[in-house]
Amino acid sequence: NSSDTNTDCPFQLLCFLKLHTYTRVQVSIDICGVDHPSRKRRFEVVYNLLSTRYNSRIRVQTSADEVTRISPVVSPFPSAGRWEREVWDMFGVSFINHPDLRRISTDYGFEGHPLRKDLPLSGYVEVRYDDPEKRVVSEPIEMTQEFRYFDS
User: Fold this and answer.
1) How is the chain split into domains, by residue range?
2) b/e for 1-31, b at 16 or more Cβ within 10 A?
3) Which one of 8, 110, 118, 142 is most buried, by most CB atoms within 10 A?
């Protein structure tokens, strides 16, 4: 069994699904993001939930733009904290009053959010290990040719 739903209020809906007698969702399996640059609300946040009691999965989707902040679902689903951090780190989708919203997959000095489609493929800096200095070195990217945009 599985079902999908779209909402602008994921916190209220997820609390309802956790507490309702006929759903009893106990686990937040995953929270992921999708970037759709052509949409007004370009980011989609997808919550994948599991009810072990009824052997069913529910997918809840909501959308946001660069300035919209989403309510975290850490209080009803403690495991969601890690997934929300990842969505923020990879896409830049912010969560209001999140207890621990910091980078989880990228370095603290990383500029931007790597899964956004507007991030340059080359990135901004080159990171490498310098054996003589025995440390990691960050250097600005040197482009050997001028940047070309092919989608016109």
Assistant:
1) 2-100
2) eeeeeeeeebbebbbebbeeeebebeebeeb
3) 110
Per-residue pLDDT tens digits for 21-64: 889 999 999 999 999 999 999 999 999 999 999 999 999 999 99
The correct answer on CATH 3.30.70.260 for the domain covering 2-100 is no
pLDDT digits (tens, 9 = 90+) for 74-109: 999 999 999 999 999 999 999 999 999 999 998 888
CB 47 within 8 A of CB 14: yes
Token representation of residue 138: 């960050």
The two structure tokens encoding residue 121: 């493929």
Task: Indicate whether this model's pTM tops 0.90.
Answer: no
Which parts of the chain fold into alpha helices (H)?
10-19, 80-91
